[in-house]
Design a protein that fits this description.
The protein is 40% helix and 17% strand. The chain is of the alpha/beta class. The structure holds uridine-5'-diphosphate-4-deoxy-4-fluoro-alpha-D-galactose.
Length: 327
């Protein structure tokens, strides 16, 4: 298929592009390079530098004619979204509405969207399945939930068929080592651990060790970015072959504590990774673990690269390669 990947120069987007190419799809990347990297682009693909807030850019892109598009262009810092909601309203919501209007105007009716486990908020039960109540605790999660609702309306009114993929904690890097462009100013756990392991920061903080978990630190379901990328391609094939929309959770179904992650990183990297236990970070639920049964049933998808050692070693390799090329 001819696929437009919006946000295809970013961390997850570039892995999705690599997987689409491996499956023989013809890819064009659309990205404003605000956080995406030129380094993440493949020479074989067309690249459009454009912005989802610019409807002329979008119309020019969709005017080229695509069978489908994947939308990964969003701000994603949950904490920041509570302080600067307008930034998230404009980019995530207005930007997506621009995309929906341009895509449907140009008859591009298959969409795969990066949603998030943040749509659920504090878990009412575990593991979290697709029917779990949706009460986002931060504005970022609300933008994702509202976009899921917009897509459902565009399905009814415009015949858009979409896949909403609710990622749990995306982590890891391309196991083949082709993609190793690092995110700038990361806020997520594994990149911060790696910055300490690689001497880019002195030490790290562990936010809270008094949670009701096996070692007192928060439990998350870390899912490898290559597993997510595989799911995007399967979701695209599902919605286009069945002409049916789909909303699905993507996780490894395994919970790992922050301390377990840090200790595994010490073992794998051989670095001490100094860490201080500090107070809890606002808005962190104690435990988030996905049920991926529906993804298995509908997409025949199961995480294959999401064990802790693969998550850490692929990330460490990316950090080492990136840093050695910078020198
Ligand atoms: N953590 C630390 N120290 C750090 C950074 C994180 O202890 O320096 C802890 C957090 O408190 C949390 C865990 O590591 O307990 C994971 O934190 P992340 O910031 O990496 O990820 P979150 O679980 O907060 O959120 C991520 C994505 C969201 C997504 C969510 C879905 O950033 O966009 O997963 O589960 F919605």
């Amino acid at each position: 298929m001819k696929v437009l990947v919006i946000g295809g120069a970013g961390y997850i987007g570039s892995h999705v592009v690599k997987e689409l190419m491996a499956k023989g799809h013809k890819v064009t990347v659309f990205d404003n390079l605000s956080s995406g990297l030129k380094q993440n682009l493949f020479a074989e693909n067309d690249f459009i530098q454009g912005d989802i807030l610019n409807t002329t850019d979008l119309d020019a892109a969709f005017g080229r004619g695509f069978d489908a598009f994947i939308h990964l262009a969003a701000f994603k810092a949950a904490g920041e979204s509570m302080i600067k909601p307008e930034k998230y309203s404009v980019n995530n919501i207005t930007g997506t509405l621009n995309i929906l209007n341009s895509a449907t105007a140009h008859d591009c009716k298959y969409m795969v969207f990066s949603s998030s486990a943040a749509v659920f908020g504090e878990p009412q039960y575990l593991p979290i399945d697709e029917n779990h109540p949706k009460n986002p605790e931060n504005y970022y999660g609300y933008t994702k939930l509202s976009i899921e609702q917009f897509m459902a309306w565009y399905d009814k009114l415009k015949g858009l068929k979409y896949a909403a993929l609710r990622y749990f904690n995306a982590a890891g890097y391309d196991p083949e080592g082709v993609l190793y462009g690092l995110e700038q100013n990361p806020a997520n756990l594994l990149p911060i651990i790696m910055e300490v392991a690689c001497g880019m920061r002195e030490k790290m903080k562990i936010f809270g060790n008094d949670y009701d978990t096996r070692d007192g630190t928060c439990i998350r379901d870390y899912v490898h970015v290559t597993d997510l990328a595989i799911a995007h391609v399967k979701a695209l094939e599902y919605i286009s072959s069945k002409n049916e929309s789909l909303t699905v959770n993507l996780g490894s179904e395994t919970g790992t504590t922050v301390t377990e992650m840090v200790e595994a990183a010490r073992r794998i990297t051989g670095h001490a990774i100094p860490a201080d236990y500090v107070e809890r970070r606002a808005g962190d639920p104690a435990c988030l673990v996905a049920s991926a049964k529906y993804a298995a049933e509908k997409l025949n998808w199961k995480a294959q690269y999401s064990d802790i050692d693969t998550l850490i070693s692929t990330t460490y390799n990316a950090y080492k390669k990136f840093n050695s090329e910078k020198k």
